[in-house]
Amino acid sequence: MNREEQLFLNHLHDLAKLCYSRNIPVYTDFLNLNEQTVFLSNLSEFSHIRTAMDGGYEGAERKIVCFLPAYGNERPSREELPIRPLCIRSAAGKFTVACSHRDYLGAVLNLGIERGKIGDFLVGDGYAYVLCSRGLADFLTEHLTFVKRNPVLCALADFSELEGQLSFAEQTGSLASLRMDSLIALFTKNSRSSAVSILESERVFVNGKLCLSHSAEPKEGDIISVRGFGKFIFDGVLSSTKKGRLMIKIRIYR
Length: 254
Fold this sequence. Notes:
This protein is an alpha+beta fold. The protein has helices at 3-22, 33-41, 101-109, 137-143, 160-163, 180-188, 192-200; strands spanning 26-27, 50-54, 64-68, 83-90, 118-123, 127-133, 146-147, 150-156, 168-175, 204-206, 209-210, 223-226, 230-240, 246-253.
């Protein structure tokens, strides 16, 4: 663990102590995959309290960690979390210019907002949903008026609206063996040796946790993110061929 990661872990311990001493829920900002890995790799150090992670919708990449009093039995509902979903919609009508994830993110950050206060963006045709810290919702609603060349309207949304925004491209393929390097090679359309390099360069995350093992066996339902290439859900083995190759299916986030 490097110095930056140790400082971040110390910060998590400070939040956990606050939760434990005051018996109140305490929350982090939105964590990136590296930060989630630090937390998950040291989860045993927080066994004296309850913890949960949520990004506002199933399959979210950026998530907050919730430190919860030990006496409770239930995790808070999404409506109780300190995050809010917003819908950013173009007001340019037929003159709307297509915008990417980067365009929406840039427009938000240009308002002086820290990246940790913003979660995932779900981009559609002429609109996007974004998760943000609760205290920023009113600010964004008032001050986010343009994305790229489009005038936009920003308004609070319901968490239920987010689930319908996910879309996937299904892909099938064959693997010689059920190993992470083989699966990454298939997904990235690279050689197995290139996939090994991707793993060793700390660019692969499984369910939010860094994966370095070439031979790790993916499990059905795993959400695998590969920096620079995207992320996908591993849907398991469909069948095997007479030569022993495994036919698998993945769903790639669009």
